[in-house]
Design brief:
homotrimer, alpha/beta, UDP-N-acetylmuramoyl-L-alanine:D-glutamate ligase
């Protein structure tokens, strides 16, 4: 399948170029994000003060904005870095952690989407549904985790069109769309939801791939698929042991990923 | 023993309900706290900005306040969230990390205890002794780590009465009291003190149990006992390997805890 | 060799005294720094608010300043704690993470070096070269990672003289100098660069040793050598598994280090 070969090639390119990925992210999962970026073969830099965020973005190959533990100080940095990235054609990945859970997160999500051109938006169904509600021309869309895969496809396409970006909704089946094409990924394991930050790490991986390609659909598919495959490998090793070992095995698996593993394990479904 | 059965039942209830636990905590051990909460079966949320802390508390089943790396900004959030939790009858767990070590920690501890009704207070003997000194009607109590178990019992009871809360003093033998009843727990291993954050994780576990029960004595006993048992299991596996593996094995053990293990391993002593 | 025996003795002394090490550091690698300090046998304390940093420094045996995720608030605390440490003859270790990468980091590095007497400066060749450029009487030194070991020696000596401190440049071969003597260390493995924070952990270890000795050259050599040896041990165990396991194995190895291992594995080269 064409997409599988593209993901394989992009991983090879990432490892050759080792792009610098600027993360303005939360303090809960930041260490795992840095280690996931290193494990896949890229190079992380974390910097969140307004006095330097724009210049750090300027020397980076991509920018990942994650609002997991946002505050007034870092939101200003996210906006400034996002605009700088736009100016320099550096891809922006946005992870709207907890959108829908508080007014502050909702307002910040709106502010970022209004002021920054986001290239890839990655979240779970609740978060992206909240954003779909923002963008609906009619009454707000109201989607919960229980909604069917068809709804995820509709929401991904609609949000992608509205914001002219790639949308990745991760869940039991991941749905990635640029507004026209839709790629579903059936990798991963539900044990991934038992480790904090697997979503954040996925966004960090997407940012790593976007740092070496302006084909953002493929970059998003690659990042999401790598985390899903790593989760399956980790599950096989750690299911009997526990989620501490599972957590470590995810990073192990990311560091050992290669073309053969992707070819064998990736389960893509193009619509 | 009655308390053992209650802890077993509370673990089953926690896993059925998976309560949302709001943590305003430090950036050193926050990832471990989130993963401990997930491992025991609850759901963590970390949010510390004044613009959202009250609303995040409102949707949570318990609030854990930890002053490990406090600053002016987060102390304001702790107070606001604590008051909101009181208003909504959401249990508040307070971990006064380092009380006694600086004026700022001492003042913040006083401020929280004066302005927020704390339901469970968990700390080591030095920290709770500092608080005992605050509340003593006579001259300040001055207790060091070397004090005997009898002193821990007296201090736990006295502080519990003064603040009308459950007090958990963790150490070689843990002492939990609501001011009348006293339960001692002889689980754990001294290797736990060689991993940063095992105290913070214990408070996070106590918060997880308090999220599904208003019997705060049992919730505190359950959280403290689970960490102690996990420490013993981890020690058996990792003593020869080192404290990195021991750290991961704690999370593994928490995720695999069940009624049988509690029944077999918990060592409670009711006074 | 004399230096090897000194390192062995210093490790024994560290484990006997368990010095308190105050860290004002970044939120990416802080948990690993705390666990590395515990693993080697010292005791970590993290506190970064201006309301308490000076008093926390006062009760500590050393202060480690790390600008990995600096911001205006924490820079003020670094300066205040640094001055307090100087006043009380408490050793100051400075890790200028990312110096050269942004004006804010550059300015902060200058500010710290101008206002605080730093006893040990630890960084990679790029960071220390940036500082060498600051101190050059002629036009700025411009050294990149590709420069030879001879340059590292020249830079280490020059910066050590200029700031009257010990300089540790870590890399494939580590170079430690007090401006006169030079000790090279050939331990470590390049896999260490695939885990975030191994540099930060090295500075934390150096701070641990400096907490029990005012022979800062030996303290710096001890901290750098311990990380290098731990990296080699971890590599043997984890090379086939991945960098998650390698990360954990570093902490394991630090916790199991002893005189015999140092005697057998340390590779020092005095010039």
């Amino acid at each position: 399948m064409k997409i599988k070969k593209q993901v394989e090639d992009l991983l090879a390119k990432l490892r050759e170029k080792s792009p610098l990925v600027h993360n303005i992210t939360n303090y809960v999962t930041v260490n795992d994000c840095a280690n996931a970026i290193l494990a896949i073969g890229a190079s992380p830099i974390m910097a969140d003060d307004i006095k330097e965020t724009e210049s750090i973005t300027s020397i980076s190959s991509s920018l990942v904005i994650n609002i997991g533990t946002l505050n007034k100080r870092t939101v200003a940095s996210m906006l400034a870095s996002g605009k700088k990235a736009n100016e320099l054609n550096i891809p922006v990945i946005f992870d709207p952690v907890g959108s829908g859970a508080s007014e502050f997160r909702n307002d910040t999500t709106k502010e970022i989407l209004n002021q920054v051109k986001v290239n890839i938006l990655r979240g779970n169904l609740s978060e992206i549904s909240f954003i779909a509600g923002l963008s609906a021309s009619t009454k707000g869309v109201d989607v919960s985790e229980e909604d069917s895969k068809n709804d995820a496809v509709a929401i991904a396409k609609s949000v992608a069109k509205k914001y002219d970006c790639v949308v990745a909704i991760t869940g039991a089946v991941d749905v990635i769309s640029d507004g026209e094409k839709v790629i579903k990924i059936s990798n991963g394991h539900k044990m991934l939801s038992k480790v904090t930050g697997t979503g954040c790490m996925t966004s960090a991986l997407v940012g790593s791939f976007a740092g070496v390609s302006n084909d953002y659909l493929t970059a998003a598919v690659a990042g999401v698929a790598c985390m899903g495959i790593a989760g399956e490998i980790a599950y096989k090793l750690a299911q009997e042991i526990g989620i501490g070992t599972f957590h470590i095995a995810i990073i192990d698996a990311l560091s050992k990923l290669n073309s053969e593993i992707i070819r064998e394990m990736a389960r893509f479904n193009e619509e």
